[in-house]
Amino acid sequence: MILSCGEALIDLVPLGEGYRPYPGGSPYNIAIALGRLETPVGFLGKISTDFFGEMLINNLIHNQVDTRYIIRADGLTTLGIVSLPSQHQEPQFSFYANDSVDRNLTIAELPTQFPSEVKVLHFGSISLVLEPGATALEQLMQRESKHRFISLDPNIRPHIITDKVAYSQRLENWLKSVDIIRVSVADLNWLYPKADPETIIKQWLNLGPILGILTLGAQGAKAYTRASVAVLASVPAIQVVDTVGAGDSFLAAVLAYLNEQNLLTTRTQLMNISVDQLTACLNYASRAAAINCSRAGANPARKSELI
Which residues contact 206 (CB under 8 A, 6 or more apart)? Predict the structure, then answer.
């Protein structure tokens, strides 16, 4: 099982002159996408008992996501207001999360251990920024890195980061516990505006990760390993509706492919991934992301659509 840990929220996506609510949050989207790809998956997080929380829970269940690691609590669900500058540009988000339920996950509420079926823990996005949940998840990441694979997608939302230097230092510290890192070129351009993104991700591999993936939007994606394997995947030609959740769909497909190919059993297996395997993995993920972009909101591909 892959267990995705973090925020579950409601994205309000522009529709005509108003907005339509969609279940969202990067770790939540990844759980949904993995369920649709028929990969054993669970979600760990704190979800409100309000009607938005019920929407989030029902969507997880409908998409075959294990909900046993979810804490329910009274309070507000975080709202993300989405701005879509154009079809091919990165969406912008404004979050309404003051004292919301998902950000208030505490260390005491985390499981003290996981069964052996949990092979991977995934982390990322605003749940690693907003306290007290950020510290709780950070400690979980560090604790569990000794026992299973750790996946990370920073999925940076600049508007909620008050200290860029402190965040950068914290992220680099997380990398010591991480095996798989996905980062967008937009994320790296914001973090290190004067640096070459490829140089940065290669440097990150020296801090801990086995596999680093750099997504380039419409230009495709590149992957790097400690063994200096590097491959490039292009983006399938599609009619883009919007790009909300594209990165989440991409990374979920990467994890699904690696799991299906039995490359997430030991770290040695992942270290020894071949160029052909990595190329096939990126192409599979690019197709999944393209399907997501062909429809509104975070709406990941199903396995049947990728066969």
Answer: none
Interhelix angle 246-260/275-293, nearest 10 degrees: 140
Q: Which of 214, 225, 233 is nearest to 280 (CA)?
A: 233
Q: Where are the alpha helices (DSSP H) in 88-230?
A: 133-144, 164-174, 185-191, 197-205
Q: Report whether 244 contacts 82 (CB < 8 A).
A: yes
In percent, the amount of the chain with pLDDT more than 90 equals: 80
Query: What band does 296 get if pLDDT is binned at 50, 70 and 90?
Result: confident
Reported residue count of the chain is 307
Cβ contacts of 35 within 8 Å, gap of 6 or more:
41, 60, 63, 64, 65
Domain boundaries, the chain: 2-306
Q: What is the per-residue pLDDT for 265? A: 93
3-class SS at 288? helix
Task: Please give the structure tokens belonging to residue 273.
Answer: 């991934």
Closest CA to 251 of 56, 31, 13: 31
What pLDDT is recorded for position 86? Answer: 58
Residue with tokens 């999944």: 288
Query: What is the CATH code for 2-306?
Result: 3.40.1190.20
Q: 141 Cβ partners below 8 Å, 6+ apart?
A: 121, 123, 150, 152, 174, 177, 178
Q: What is the pLDDT of residues 147-199, one digit of tens each?
A: 999 999 999 999 899 999 999 999 999 999 999 999 999 999 999 999 999 99
Q: Is 108 left (phi over 0), alpha (psi -120 to 50) or beta?
A: alpha
pLDDT tens digits, one per residue of 20-61 = 999 999 999 999 999 999 999 999 999 999 999 999 999 999
Mean pLDDT of the chain: 93
Amino acid present at 259? N
For residue 279 the two structure tokens come to 């190329």
Q: Which residue has tokens 């989440």?
A: 248
